[in-house]
Design a protein that fits this description.
Chain lengths: 290, 329
């Protein structure tokens, strides 16, 4: 077996990666929980957000963490508009159509970026990108520690919003009983769009957190989106706490698989886990049995 | 449109079959061959997705297996290309049966089914990109051997006729399924699985049969691809592009109809070529167009081109009837 000298950093690094996974999954699970649809455009929207953050830094010199303050509301509006004016009307109330429309959106966004910016992989240069925090047993990269903290704050804020605000209550009502909510005067189309907007806004935050230590290319979102699907399925579709726990868990599993099996097989580990969970327990490890 | 008969299919195929006699242009034949290949793969998707209502996002799993089985058997074991082609179809059908058995027995449907098929295709893609037997990252190159018994030809016309024959078989099979008891069960499962079960339809077995037939057709497309281009790698064989084109053709042409995939494939490939004419070799634009057309079709013409045509025909008949009525009145 491997010694703690290797194991502890692997687990901690896995937790840090897992936090960003959790944030991407949070957006997905929120949309699934309320709209009961799987958003196949999630990965492409993450890619778009990363390109936005990249060019904000490259062209205007805006630090990714500051860009998050602009991009998050912007992507909320994008998500709101997509659901309200594209996905909602095009679906005609059939879930199979939602699958196709979000898949179509993913293809358009991803290849639009490919067409505009080519397949080149880009990175930003920030002076704090290589700063580390010395914990004695392990060095942790500063940007990823910041990402971890921000994810926890965002998750808490989302949870508070869902429990305390009127919009949050309306979202939960629509999630539970769409028709009943509609009859009590809740504008379901608006709540759907708000939820989709929030899910997309999560991606903008994730993009800004990833940028300092990650690369950008037109396909970058795909790496995250299947991981996010796995997390959402693990944590139980629609569960915020499940997404957070699932994200951290998957981050650690990936890190350990990478350590023992090598980089590319680490990814296979995630897919196989995903298929197994879907086949054996589709309601997720934390979800209620269907 | 219900009235399509085997005779209609044979007429369409006969018309397409004379194209190589009219033109020797490699550009035209290559375009039509690729379009027919997509029609074949799309017809496979149509059996499961169109008639069975199970939307797969991972038909690359079957396409790639068909391609890899024949390519590996030829390059590593020196097996005859025609036999390899048949075994490729068989291999794809088996992968379909296994994926179907795993997913349908677990009761996965709708979004979950789409997700899990996508994941299976990705596992196979990553597996093929590292396993030595598939040539890993380098891919597999089939040796040039331009003899008919090696399934290779001097000109493009024989390839074209072969893929046309495969499309003909797929059209006839789908037409036979449509009018069979099995086809009725399949549509019943699509429309309302619970109701179908209550009436005694064994939904899991019906879906299992559908995915096996579907996978076999798509694998035939993959095996043909390997033979036609003589090169495959993990990104071509198991890549998301083929999963997308497999569903694009039937959705655009008319989902759950005999001619939908063929019509859709011709339209999609024409749009792709036009995009290339406009932008040259810039990557991405053809797929941007495909994605936009997919969204537009789902939004405004959920029954595809065939649906639009049948609506127009109905309107035309009504118009004529009303004009005739006025003339008499």
């Amino acid at each position: 077996m491997l010694s703690p000298v290797l194991l502890v950093p692997a687990v901690l690094n896995g937790l840090l990666t897992g936090a960003v996974y959790a944030l991407v999954a949070l957006g997905l699970t929120l949309i699934y929980g309320v709209l009961h649809i799987i958003n196949f455009a999630h990965g492409a929207l993450l890619t778009a957000a990363m390109f936005a953050a990249f060019f904000a830094q490259r062209l205007f010199g805006i630090d990714p963490y500051l860009a998050a303050l602009v991009l998050t509301p912007l992507f909320f509006v994008v998500g709101y508009g997509l659901q309200r004016f594209v996905i909602g009307p095009a679906a005609h109330g059939d879930d199979r159509n939602v699958l196709l429309v979000t898949l179509g959106l993913a293809v358009v966004i991803e290849n639009g970026l490919l067409f505009a910016f080519r397949a080149d992989t880009r990175t930003v240069n920030l002076d704090y990108a290589f700063e580390v925090i010395d914990l004695g047993v392990v060095f942790l990269p500063l940007p990823r520690v910041i990402a971890f903290a921000v994810v926890l704050v965002v998750a808490l804020a989302l949870w508070l919003m869902l429990s305390l605000t009127d919009t949050g209550k309306a979202m939960r009502a629509v999630a539970k009983e769409k028709l009943g909510a509609e009859l009590s005067g809740i504008d379901v189309a608006h709540i759907y769009a708000v939820t989709f907007g929030l899910g997309t806004a999560c991606l903008a935050v994730a993009a800004c957190l990833l940028l300092p230590t990650y690369y950008v290319n037109p396909h970058v979102g795909n790496a995250f989106v299947l991981v996010a699907f796995t997390i959402v399925v693990l944590g139980g579709m629609g569960s915020v706490a499940g997404a957070l726990a699932g994200g951290l868990f998957v981050g650690v599993v990936e890190s350990l698989c990478g350590l023992y099996l090598g980089e590319s097989l680490g990814q296979i580990g995630i897919f196989i886990m995903f298929i197994l969970v879907l086949l054996v327990r589709p309601s997720g490890l934390f979800g209620e049995p269907a | 449109m219900k009235g399509w008969s085997i005779a209609h299919i044979l007429i369409v195929i006969a018309l397409l079959a004379i194209v190589p006699l009219l033109t020797a242009s490699n550009v035209v034949l290559n375009f039509l061959t690729v379009a027919l290949l997509i029609a074949l793969v799309g017809q496979g998707w149509n059996v499961l997705g169109g008639y069975g209502g199970q939307y797969s996002f991972g038909h690359a799993a079957f396409f790639g297996t068909g391609a890899y089985v024949t390519a590996i058997l030829q390059t590593r074991y020196g097996i005859n290309a025609w036999l390899g082609f048949a075994l490729g179809i068989l291999g794809g059908a088996m992968v379909g049966a296994v994926i179907g058995a795993l997913t349908f027995r677990s009761g996965l449907k709708g979004s979950y089914f789409a997700l899990v098929t996508l994941a299976f295709a990705e596992v196979l893609r990553i597996g093929a990109s590292v396993a030595p037997v598939t040539g890993a990252g380098v891919g597999l190159l089939l040796a040039l051997d331009l003899r008919p018994q090696a399934f290779q030809f001097q000109s493009r016309a024989p390839f074209y006729w072969i893929v046309l024959a495969l499309v003909a078989v797929s059209l006839i099979v789908v037409r036979l399924i449509e009018h069979s008891r099995f086809g009725a069960w399949l549509v019943a499962v699509r429309e309302n699985e619970e109701a179908a079960k209550a009436l005694g339809v064994d939904a899991v077995r019906v879906k299992l049969a559908a995915i096996t037939v579907s996978a076999a057709m798509t694998a035939a497309g993959g095996a043909f691809y390997a033979q036609y281009f003589l090169f495959i790698d993990s990104g071509i064989a198991y890549g998301p592009w083929i999963s997308i084109e497999a569903l694009l053709a039937p959705i655009i042409g008319g989902v759950g109809t005999v001619f939908g995939p063929l019509l859709g494939a011709l339209v999609v490939k024409t749009l792709g070529e036009l995009a290339k004419l406009v932008t040259g070799d810039a990557p991405g634009l053809d797929l941007v167009i495909y994605g936009s057309v997919l969204i537009l079709v789902v939004a405004f013409a959920p029954r595809g081109i065939i649906g639009v045509l049948s609506d127009l025909r109905m309107r035309w008949t009504r118009l004529r009837a009303s004009v005739a009525g006025r003339a008499h009145g």
